[in-house]
Amino acid sequence: MADGCDHLAAIGNIKRPQRRECAECVKVQAQWVHLRTCQSCGVTLCCDSSPNKHASKHARAVSHPVIASAEPGERWLYCFVDDAAVEY
Ligand SMILES: [Zn+2]
Ligand SMILES: [Zn+2]
Ligand SMILES: [Zn+2]
Prior knowledge:
Layout: H1 6-9, H2 25-28, E1 35-38, E2 44-46, H3 54-62, E3 66-69, E4 76-79, E5 84-87
Antiparallel strand pairs: 1-2, 1-3, 3-4, 4-5
């Protein structure tokens, strides 16, 4: 696991996306680029390459530090607090 990040070290079972869509973008009919799943509450939101950056906004707003990529074939976690990533 990544050095110095207790958030990533604390992740056990990785939450996978329930649906392949951004839960916030669908409400406002916005577009997204890639999807990320919050490892604290399981919500799937859009990445920082997307116009609305819902995943990082969510992470800051409710202090949920770790996301997993929700893209098919990608297996990594990222911690916003420590700017740390790890593959699994
Ligand atoms: Zn961390
Ligand atoms: Zn979004
Ligand atoms: Zn969350």
